[in-house]
Amino acid sequence: MRHLLASAKRKIYPVNPTVSEVLGIAAYDSVVDIPGSIDLAVIAVSASRVPMVIRECVQKGVKAAVIVSGGFAETGEQGGKLETDLVKVARQGGIRFIGPNSMGHADTSSQLSTLAWTWEITPGPVGLISQSGNYGHRIIHSGLISGIGFSKFISTGNEADLHLEDYLEYLAQDENTKIITAYIEGLREGRRFFQLAKETTVRKPIVVIKAGVTKESAKAVRFHTGTSAGSDAVYTTAFRQAGVLRVDDDDELCDVVTALLYQPLPRNNRIGILTIGGGLGVVAAEACEREGLEIAPLAPSTVEKLDACLPPRWSHGNPVDMAGISMAENPAIFSSLWALMEDENVDAVLLQAPLGAGNKRLSSMFNSGEIRAFRQAEESNLSLVSQRVREQGKPVFMVKPAVEFATDPEASSLFRKKGIPVYPGPRRAARVLNHLAWYRRYLDAAER
Amino acid sequence: MRHLLASAKRKIYPVNPTVSEVLGIAAYDSVVDIPGSIDLAVIAVSASRVPMVIRECVQKGVKAAVIVSGGFAETGEQGGKLETDLVKVARQGGIRFIGPNSMGHADTSSQLSTLAWTWEITPGPVGLISQSGNYGHRIIHSGLISGIGFSKFISTGNEADLHLEDYLEYLAQDENTKIITAYIEGLREGRRFFQLAKETTVRKPIVVIKAGVTKESAKAVRFHTGTSAGSDAVYTTAFRQAGVLRVDDDDELCDVVTALLYQPLPRNNRIGILTIGGGLGVVAAEACEREGLEIAPLAPSTVEKLDACLPPRWSHGNPVDMAGISMAENPAIFSSLWALMEDENVDAVLLQAPLGAGNKRLSSMFNSGEIRAFRQAEESNLSLVSQRVREQGKPVFMVKPAVEFATDPEASSLFRKKGIPVYPGPRRAARVLNHLAWYRRYLDAAER
Fold first, then answer.
1. Best B283, B315, B321, B325 residue to mutate vs chain A (most A CBs within 10 Å)
2. What is the largest CA-CA distance in chain A?
3. What percent of chain B is predicted at pLDDT more than 70?
4. Which of A50, A212, B185, B345 is most buried, judged by most C-beta within 10 A?
5. pLDDT tens for residues A57-90?
6. Exposed, middle or buried: residue A77 (CB in 10 Å: 0-12, 13-18, 19+)?
7. How many angstroms separate the CA of residue A36 from the nearest CA in chain B?
8. Mean pLDDT of A137-151
9. What confidence tens digit (pLDDT) does each residue in A317-352 have?
10. Interchain pair A278, B250: CB under 8 A
């Protein structure tokens, strides 16, 4: 209720027969006692009382509800019966509802939130449908810190009335939602999901976590929401045929969404790797190959260009080890990067080199004026790279250890501002690039 | 030289015929002109001059050198010849050396560093041998931020004289080194490594990254250090037979080292999962199974204990979903944790629940006195858990998103101080637990 009051645009009527007011606002004994008309009922009473409250809502002419209360089908047979009753009452009365056992929902554009979370969700282009309130919470939290904003969030709960597929259909045509994400344990309308997804992904990416793949996690799904996790092979095939990007967890989801927001799709999966050290290149190449990318063979003209700007001890192949050249004095990093981006064999570049003025550790600069100069150089260098990415339509991903961002939060927001996704290790970057390359191939095939 | 001067315990003689002083200290034209006796020569002249400098060192009676200079075998045939000459001169003169093409080395206990890095390495029990200077740099940087201290670091370079195996033999008997770590591209004395490792791992863990597993990364290894990455199957078998823990990258290396430092080894791989939400449990169970752990079936007595302290809607199985109970008012999280730790079927516990006073977001508390109260409660709760871990010899791992630590660096150091490793996601925690369980089984078998 605090959240709802914070937006201050709506009339809120607390209903609670045991108190006279809630947060300073007069409370009503029953929904039917409310003087004005009601657009949405948010129900958080004990399970056994929910059907009664819904009846009152029907009487009052309410058309929509969010049922936060738990204690229904997820708890066993008796709760299941209660849920069946609830659906019957709502259907007869023409009420559609989210839940029960939902954590609530949020719409950042109209500033409506029925969530009990104490923090705000930053508005943005990503819609999220989650079959777990807690996991949805985790995704949104990870997303916000990664700089991702959200349009709508729905914690679907038991889906006794509205199903995940209904929310998907809605987000597919929602103008504020450019990317749809979902945490799925089990689908109630698999065929409808497949059709909707197939129609949607050609113009709007869908990124999902489908949990319950392993034996015990599938058991846990049954305990959690009472649904069946289903055959993973069927889900896998359906997702691939419908152009749905499937990820493993919240980190990978945020990684992919960030790339989709900021970078062009690579034409294919042939990667160029640019590093300041041999070992970094070895580990990056290994990570890329493990994730299904190809290490691009360099065109002879690219080797010539690199010969012209790098010291003779450079690796003469991909991964391109610039052999320790330092940024501060040497523009070779840009010449090398442009050379890789111009290579017809290279679909995307993984960059593992400092983009600031020199590779001095930030930690040694704190409390000195140097840090400002470093930041300025880094910012203008990032702008240069960002411009090339747009011009050439070829993605550039940076790899920087998470630890650097942990000690220097300013850095990550600067990179984001310039549209260059930064990943803590080569494996996470490679995985995202593989998703993007696959999606591009899917879209190309769908167009033909 | 700045580093060497900073420790201020040694006599440093700069040698450079083109200047009269370096950092205010009189420079000599040649090693032979130095008045005192020399314990260690640090050589960073161009490759072609290195044999000459080594000759001067022989004349002066120097017995040890670090050769930072590059331009030897790693650059091709001509450099290879130069390296052969260098080794001949050194052998004849009785000089042992690190490198060439080494980034230097460091010993934190005697405060000796020949590295050019601008930051200090915190002393600690971890030794690191790296066949890549840059990757070693990355490991140490990741380690320091994760709270890991180092005893010795050696960037082995081309290993023209001293081999990785020599450093391993040394660290195996070094009292300041409790855990040995290494970044390996290719071994020159595989059989010796295997023997040394086998003798060492029964009392001191060895954790390695072996790079060059994939086709193109193996090629990159040849470019980088001129060694062969070898057959990965042979390495894999040898590592397993010698009790060597093999990890993929710097993050996993730090994850494993942190666990080895702070936690007992689990007797086996049967995990108990404790969460505040169903979806979190589903994803955690999936991650554990994917990494090879078993989801422990709960003993009937454990179910009874959990029935007694949790709301009736708890999951009644493993993963244990506490169904949203909030820490602030409810000691059930501890009762549940103790119950899982006491279960004979459970070898380790994965905890995904807030240990502070309530699960209010820290972000909503900044600038208020609440944060201090939260911290105090968290600290005393962590001490309780930590004590139980020691008493029962059963590890407890926490899962918290990296993003929380990114916004609240104080938290990670508090958890570390209390000896509870915290991982950003269940998959990383599960992977570490699988390594630890494997190592325990190896040790048990070795004892018999």
1. B283
2. 84
3. 91
4. B185
5. 999 999 999 999 999 998 889 999 999 999 999 9
6. exposed
7. 34
8. 91
9. 999 998 866 554 467 888 999 999 999 999 999 998
10. no
* DSSP H/E element including A396: strand A396-399
According to the model, what pLDDT value does residue A63 have? 97
What residue type is B201 in one-letter code?
T
Q: What is the pLDDT of residue A400?
A: 78
Residue B107 dihedral angles phi and psi, to the nearest 5°:
-130, 110
Q: How many Å apart are CA A17 and CA A45, to the nearest integer?
A: 11
Contacts 24+ apart (CB under 8 A), A332-338: A333/A274, A334/A381, A334/A384, A335/A305, A335/A308, A335/A309, A336/A274, A336/A306, A336/A309, A336/A310, A337/A274, A337/A385, A337/A388, A337/A396, A338/A388
Q: Tell me if the bond preceding A319 is cis, omega within 30° of 0.
A: yes
A249: contact with B, CB 8 A cutoff: yes
Question: Residue written as tokens 């034409």?
Answer: A267
Selected residues 415-434 of chain A with any CB under 8 Å from a CB in chain B: 424-427
Round to whole Å and give the CA distance between B67 and B54: 10
- Taking contacts as CB-CB distances below 8 angstroms, the residues of chain A near B148 are none
Cβ atoms of residues A64 and A97 within 8 Å = yes
Distances (CA, A) of A226 to A157, B71, B324: 10, 65, 17
Interface predicted TM-score of the whole assembly (ipTM), two decimals? 0.85
Please count the other Cβ atoms lying within 10 Å of the Cβ belonging to residue A9: 9
Whether residue A424 has a cis bond before it, omega within 30° of 0: no
Contact A99, A66 (CB under 8 A): yes
B93 by Cβ neighbours in 10 Å (0-12 / 13-18 / 19+) ranks as middle
Instruction: Report chain A residues whose CB lies below 8 A from the CB of B364.
Output: 118-119
Question: In B, which residues are within 8 Å of A145 by CB distance?
Answer: 403, 406-407
More confident residue, B372 or A95: A95
| B76 and A CB contact within 8 Å | no
Q: Give residue-wise pLDDT tens across range B287-316.
A: 999 999 999 999 999 999 999 999 888 889
Which residues on neighbouring strands pair with residue B179, listed in sequence order?
Answer: B126
- Of B84, B36, B44, give the one whose Cα is nearest residue B62: B36
